[in-house]
Amino acid sequence: MKGVGAFLDTETTGLTSNDEVIEFAIVLFRYDVARRKLRVIDRYRGLREPSCAIDPGAEAVHGISFDQVRGKRLKDRAVRRILSKADFLVAHNAAFDRRFVTKLYPETEAMRWHCSMNGIGWRKKGFTSKGLQQLLAAHGIKVKRGHRALDDVTGALNLLAQTDAKTSQIYLAELLDVEPDEVERA
Known about the structure:
alpha/beta; Nucleotidyltransferase, domain 5
């Protein structure tokens, strides 16, 4: 199974439906499940000034202050160019990111979404947490800054490219629900 997907992540002003995106990253990748390969082919990361304050709790997690986003706007053309090339979207905790992304880019509502947090049986594999930072650490994947959109996307893609010891498939295969015999035929 081969194709093109896009992994995205957001950092927001808070956790409620009234909060807004302040950092957005998306990475377009080509994959070949049979060869256990993922390759980045395009990426975008941008900051965005919200119309509301950044919750102090959110700022404590991602470290993005209002001064850092003041006057910033996302490059919608760059984002839409990447979205138009993707067969599907992936996010770690897709339910959260989807709420925010569909407000900015309504066309993503109709796209197929996958959740790397809930779409893979992490606990069945023996991991005590489905949290991205904990999974990255358990796999020895280091990121420059956790809870920053592009670093989290890059780390998560590295995670999806790891081989599951029990199935000998990359985690992406499970996320896309690829049967082992499909991989062998590809």
